[in-house]
Amino acid sequence: MANVKPFRGLRPPKEIIEELACLPYDVMNSEEAEQMAEGKEKSLLRITRAEIECPGVEDIHSETVYNKALENFKAFQEKDWLAQDVEEKYYIYAQTMNGRTQYGIVGGASCADYENGLIKKHELTRPEKEEDRMVLTRYLNANIEPVFFAYKAVPEIDAIVNEVVANNKPVYDFTAEDGFGHHFWVVNDSEKNRNIQYLFETKVQCTYVADGHHRTAAAARIGLEKTAQNPNHNGEEEYNYFMAVHFPDNQLQIIDYNRVVTDLNGLSEVGFLAELNKAFEVENMRQEIYKPVRLHEFSLYLGGNWYKLTARKGTFNDDDPIGVLDVTILSNQVLGPILDITDLRTSKRIDFVGGIRGLGALKKRVDSGEMKAAFALYPVSMQQLINIADSGNIMPPKTTWFEPKLRSGLVIHKLD
After folding, report:
1. Does the N-terminal peptide bond of residue 404 adopt cis geometry, omega within 30 degrees of 0?
2. Distance between CA atoms of 264 and 334, rounded to whole angstroms?
3. Angstrom distance (rounded) from CA 24 to CA 45
4. Which of 88, 146, 284, 362 stands the most exposed, by the fewest C-beta atoms within 10 Å?
5. Is the overall model pTM greater than 0.85, yes or no?
């Protein structure tokens, strides 16, 4: 069963939360981080993307950058921009997008659960990204940003969350510049904290990494590293846990993750459509943007027109957790055999566009001449993600896009 414990959070005073809180480190580059932090002395980006304070440094993974992050982390605490709670407790973090709110519990996830497979993953990690977050965690001795977990909904946990939310004002409550709402409660009732821990231990068989595989892997590795370094290790130390926001699966929605390609592998547009017709029913929808409305339905933007592509029977396997995925169908029927794009992680002929940008972003990239064609996919469901993780399989690259992203800085977990 899942081991999720309360912890003594390091948090900012509510007066500065909007200036301090920021998007996670991996949704921006250094230039964008610098723009986002401009005029914000207290932005957590000065820790999570400390290269913005190291002019002239070419390697953002250099010792200079990590030392600057540590220097700023210490300064934030000395200036009381971050202060640690006296007692261990859980926190409730809710996000609102398009009038819909999802409620998660912030707690310490167990490194042992990750090693034992009770925290289930569905993506491969890239060693260089994993190493970067591991080094930063080592320097700061803290989980500076949370990871995004899911669990199969438990009505008794929902009831506690609903009670806390109904009877208490949020400590933080703001709408970020992207229009998404962020709401945060501290669970101060000791009995509720005990009940939350008990319910995770008795009702939640496992948890799932929804977003943040690299941070999760890095945090678990730090736990193992600290275990090896401590001759008096007893398993109760704070470094045995890392910070995660746990959302019930029935509140989460995955957004589509779409593809654009640079060329048609030597085919004409007519020839490409003829090849597609072997595996798909192809219908010309003309100039109006067409969005897929069901599983195994795709849309293609090519030559100024949108096409509806419906996968023919025999091109997919609904009994296979990987074979049922539309990203698998696209790779097996189009990207590989027709376009000769076989390695999605390394090919320079394909790019990926999160559905949060809308299908207009696909059209724009093709119309500009940068890309030749775009494919929009029906989003993966939470049940599909759970099926894949439960079966021990790994999703193809760039399959899931979760939105809103967790804001960093609402709470931090120190490892000592």
Report:
1. yes
2. 10
3. 9
4. 284
5. yes
Domain ranges of the chain: 4-253+403-414, 257-378
CATH number for the segment(s) 257-378 = 3.30.1760
- How is residue 117 written in tokens? 């497979």
Determine phi and psi for 192, rounding to 5 degrees. Answer: -65, -40
Grouping H, G, I as helix, E, B as strand and the rest as coil, residue 211 is: strand
Helix (H, G, I), strand (E, B) or coil at 217: helix
pLDDT, tens digit, for every residue of 164-209?
999 999 999 999 999 999 999 999 999 999 999 999 999 999 999 9
**Looking at residue 123, what is its pLDDT?**
84
HSE of 156 in the Cβ direction (CA atoms, 13 Å)? 13
Structure tokens at 156: 């008794």
Measured from the Cβ of residue 270, the count of other Cβ atoms closer than 10 Å reads: 9
Question: How far apart are the C-alpha atoms of 148 and 237, rounded to whole Å?
Answer: 22
Can you tell me which residue has the tokens 């980006």?
Answer: 45
How long is the chain?
Answer: 416
Average pLDDT over residues 73-98: 97
